[in-house]
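Support request from a user on the community tier.

User writes: "When I paste my structure tokens into the form, the page sometimes reloads and wipes my input. The last time it worked, I copied everything first. Here is what I submitted, just in case something in the input itself triggers the reload:"
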């Protein structure tokens, strides 16, 4: 069958210095399940009915990737490249078609050049590992990527990637200055040899459509020796509705050293243990508390920030703080597995006009429903550097004009299909409710919060028109340029998945 032929092809392809038998796992192998499951972040895709790979390959050297591409092509198998495994819809490790997982977790070398403020990082490394290695070399350098340390740089950077430095420095993808990729013909290319079109495409267009990204060269950014963090909770009794409403008008205009995001959840009030809505204001300020307090007094007095709410710390400690770890536990940044993996479904939205108080109250109402017990809505302010970068600089198009981004999330514990459907229905209901309040034409979405509800490809023969349905939401007008790049670098559409960029010759 397919996988025997694939294995045979692999052994014929491997040469003396790249023995492959110890990096290939099939279902007969005792480690197959643990290798498959260890980086899965969504229990929805760990069930017995989730389609599994025929083979998993875990290269320890770049030269072992080329044979995987060649042999997958020869045997009609798809490749799913996995770096950190955080894809919200499991596209890096689950598919209905025969496929092999190319798992890059062994390729995670990071070399930081503090003097030149750059780093080369292999795509199998996580952002936690990156932050840790930067801090080893310097207290005053950082990088503007995501919050959760286990996120992989392969998927995260190729889809944009943002965190608390977004208003000051933009996205991870805005700060990539070189890359190495294996193309469909097995050639290893860097920025010069791949050319500016392909280099543009992989910084925000999703890596999976274009090849296997091996490594990124990034521009590190300056951070002060001391930053300040705070977290303030406001329930409905504590004026949450008015403060959230107000935040929408000002958060994108704050000094770009100030990032305040909001997490909306339902909680039981500590006073009467009745259900209420809680807005958690979580902040990173790039400076000391003495500068922050007058700034907050001037720009957001409604929050009532006090000195005792604030903690000064180093930037690397703020990474641990935002991720919910004790700031002394720096080594957890090197862990590749998350402590708390659950079932979830997520969606994203962009807000361009403040939502009215009535509109917010309608959201609260949905959060009072049963299914929302573990739901979260995360509002992340834009503005600052995000307003200065043009919509076409990289494929990620959501720039000036956006006040903030919303991530809608619902988590649950039950495994049953019926329960799953209830939670998914709930988040779809929330998403329909939000329609009048968020971006339209297109209703924009963030590719790193992958959502197959907004449209999928037919396997293999997807028309441009069909892919535009989800493609324009993620990329706006940049979708057309992504299609052109795809047509040039992978005209036969070998690198594909449920939401990959189609080449133009598949237009039929
Ligand atoms: P994974 O390995 O699943 O890959 C995702 C996609 O990229 C797949 O299509 C995969 O094939 C492709 N891919 C991966 N490596 C590749 C490579 N080397 N070459 C080519 N294609 C490759 N986002 C954010 O912006 N800010 C945040 O703070 C967070 N926080 C966060 C927390 C948690 C718990 C989760 C689960 C997710 C996030 N995210 C996020 C979303 C995250 O950015 C998104 O899921 C990334 O695609 C994850 O990249 P991984 O490499 O981990 O995923």
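"...and here is what came back when it finally went through:"
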């Amino acid at each position: 069958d397919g996988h025997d032929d694939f294995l045979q092809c692999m052994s014929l392809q491997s040469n003396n210095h790249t023995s492959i038998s110890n990096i290939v796992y099939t279902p007969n192998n005792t480690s197959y399940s643990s290798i498959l499951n260890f980086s899965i972040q969504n229990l929805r895709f760990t069930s017995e009915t989730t389609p599994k790979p025929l083979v998993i390959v875990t290269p320890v050297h770049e030269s072992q990737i080329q044979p995987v591409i060649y042999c997958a092509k020869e045997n009609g198998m798809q490749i799913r490249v996995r770096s950190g495994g955080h894809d919200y819809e499991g596209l890096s490790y689950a598919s209905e078609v025969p496929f092999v997982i190319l798992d890059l977790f062994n390729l995670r070398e990071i070399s930081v050049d503090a003097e030149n403020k750059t780093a080369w990082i292999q795509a199998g490394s996580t952002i936690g590992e990156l932050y840790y290695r930067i801090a080893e070399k310097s207290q005053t350098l950082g990088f503007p990527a995501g919050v959760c340390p286990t996120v992989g740089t392969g998927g995260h950077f190729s889809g944009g990637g943002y965190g608390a430095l977004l208003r000051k420095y933009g996205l991870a993808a805005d700060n990539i200055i070189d890359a190495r990729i294996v193309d469909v013909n097995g050639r290893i290319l860097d920025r010069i040899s791949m050319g500016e079109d392909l280099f543009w495409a992989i910084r925000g267009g999703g890596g999976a459509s274009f090849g296997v990204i091996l490594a990124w060269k990034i521009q590190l950014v300056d951070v002060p020796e001391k930053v300040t963090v705070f977290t303030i909770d406001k329930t409905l009794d504590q004026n949450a509705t008015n403060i959230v409403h107000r935040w929408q008008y000002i958060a994108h205009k704050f000094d770009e050293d100030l990032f305040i995001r909001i997490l909306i959840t339902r909680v039981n009030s500590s006073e009467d243990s009745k259900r209420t809505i809680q807005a958690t204001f979580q902040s990173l300020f790039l400076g000391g508390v003495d500068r922050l307090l007058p700034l907050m007094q001037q720009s957001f007095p409604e929050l009532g920030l006090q000195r005792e709410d604030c903690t000064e710390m180093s930037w690397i400690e703020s990474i641990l703080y935002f991720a919910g770890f004790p700031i002394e536990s720096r080594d957890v940044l090197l862990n590749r597995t998350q402590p708390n993996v659950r079932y979830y479904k997520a969606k994203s939205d962009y807000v361009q006009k403040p939502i009215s108080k009535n509109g917010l109250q309608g959201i609260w109402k949905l959060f009072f429903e049963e299914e929302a017990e573990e739901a979260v809505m995360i509002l992340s302010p834009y503005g600052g550097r995000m307003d200065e970068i043009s919509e076409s600089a990289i494929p990620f198009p959501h720039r000036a004009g956006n006040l903030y981004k919303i991530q809608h999330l619902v988590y649950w514990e039950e495994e049953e299909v019926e329960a799953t459907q209830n939670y998914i229905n709930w988040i779809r209901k929330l998403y329909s409710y939000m329609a009048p309040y968020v971006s339209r034409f297109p209703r924009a979405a963030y590719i790193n919060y992958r959502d197959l509800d907004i449209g999928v490809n037919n396997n293999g023969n997807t028309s441009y028109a069909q892919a535009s349905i989800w493609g324009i939401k993620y990329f706006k007008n940049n979708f057309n340029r992504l299609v052109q790049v795809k047509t040039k670098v992978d005209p036969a559409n070998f690198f594909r998945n449920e939401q990959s960029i189609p080449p133009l010759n598949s237009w039929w």
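Agent notes: The reload is a front-end session timeout and is unrelated to the input. The CA atoms of residues 43 and 343 lie 5 Å apart. The domain at 110-222 is CATH 3.30.465.10 (Uridine Diphospho-n-acetylenolpyruvylglucosamine Reductase; domain 3). Escalated to web team.
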